[in-house]
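HUMAN: Mind making up another protein with tokenized structure?

ASSISTANT:
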Amino acid sequence: MRLIFAGTPATALPSLRALLDSRHEVVAVLTRADAPAGRGRKLTPSPVKALALEAGVPVLTPTTLRDPEVQAQLRALDADAAAVVAYGKLIPAEALAIPTLGWVNLHFSLLPALRGAAPAQRAVLSGATATGMTVFRLDEGLDTGEVITTRERTIGPYETAGELLEAMAEDGASLLLQALDAMADGTATFSVQDHQAATHAAKLSSAEARIEWDHPAEQVSAHIRGMSPHPGAWTEWEGTRMKVLGLEPVPETTGDDHLAPGRLRATKRHLLVGTATDPLAIAQVAPAGKRPMRGADWARGASLAADAGFDSDDQKEKR
């Protein structure tokens, strides 16, 4: 088939690579316009645009797909179908009707669960041990179209949302290609979603990323991992924000004393923090203005006092 590919971030790259290497022809790529990035705020192409240019594929960066001139450009491509992975823009009905077989989207949940912008993150935040991917045909609703195929995926006990999304992006590329192959061969089936069972996966915010150490360990763990790497779960240390980006297994010997919520204990190799139930071992932190580092390394540099802790009464008084 002649395909349009629509995508923007690195999450979309495995799917674009799979289509470029397939029997199908990617006739054009849709992505966002170059945007400022880095300390110098230099205009930088999206990851998808960079790969498309490297592969010699024409790139379109329209502000909106509602523009009649943009729609005329899409019609001129004479595409059989369009594949979408994290494009980031609304596709109106007029554009949806342009490819002969429509637009198909790779979504990182088992629809109708977790429709919306942050399905992988919300799955981890909820404490789920499994999620999955869905390839479906786009309609005018939010992730409401007919399902072509799905694939389940377990969530590891220490896996962050970023790690989960990266793994599903790789695995999902073959699922997307499988669906497009079936469409080309005329063997694809389309199943209506159970809209009554739908749940929503809203975009994450920094405000909701704050860690509540007085919650049970399982809930705190899910919160930290679900918010990593962006926006990053955060707490406060000496009046400034510190991100907690990952956890690791708690060593068998943690000491006899129970750790109160937010209270810290450092060993040679681990940094432990108390919750309402069991302690957690912090694998990675990002102090304000610094790069991420191992929790134990930060603790050594901070020379923690015996009663050190996040959000302690002393620190609140300083604020």
